[in-house]
Amino acid sequence: MFNITPLVRTLIIINVGVFLMQNLLSNLYVTEYLSLWPLDSGLFRPYQVFTYMFAHGGFGHIFFNMLAFASFAPVLESYWGDKKFLLFYIATGIGAGIIYAGVNYFFPGGGNGGYMLGASGALYGILMAFGMLFPNLELMLLFPPIPIKAKYMVFLMGFITYAMDRSGTVAHLAHFGGAFVAFLIISYWRMQGK
Q: Is 149 helix (H, G, I), strand (E, B) or coil?
């Protein structure tokens, strides 16, 4: 079904491993230590702009993030190589966290205001890169089973995530942040001819 590349497989294993630790060692507050807390909460630690992207809030959260990751990331790893892909993945994840934390700090109420966790910021970076690098590649949706160009898939997935959020707990700003950082990185690499 998926042609999962080595680094993507490793990142999925890390995410699943962290998720299992969160659930099996919940009494050790793993989720609380790894999540990205608001800058003015007293619980914020600088390492959290990295660790939050490996923790997840529930089975559905990790399942859909890793499903999308396994669908799009292997193409980018194959295209760029593992070192460039890992740099991109980490940069978009950290960038998403910094944007989320910064907006919540300077504009209270700009995001959802609570702690954040999940690979979604980096995932939206991957989606943006996929759409920019392979804009006219046709992908087949599962439901409804129709083809869609990659450049439209990014917006469709963003819209679906936004439209289906009834809880108000989804960090849409982090999704935007990851996509925005990806746009900047890809644009810079294009200018540099990389």
A: strand
Which amino acid, 78?
S
Looking at the domain assignment, is residue 1 inside a domain? no
Residue 149's nearest CA partner among 135, 128, 160 is 135
What are 142-177's pLDDT values in tens digits?
777 888 898 888 778 777 766 665 555 567 788 889
Nearest alpha carbon to residue 38 among 106, 105, 93: 105
Residue 33 lies in a domain: yes
- Residues 49/34, Cβ–Cβ less than 8 Å: no
What is the CATH classification number for the domain harbouring 77?
A: 1.20.1540.10
- Three-state DSSP class for 31? helix
Residue 91's domain spans which residues? 6-192
Is there a domain that residue 25 lies in? yes
pTM, to two decimals: 0.89
What is the number of structural domains in the chain?
Answer: 1
Helix (H) or strand (E) holding 12: helix 6-24
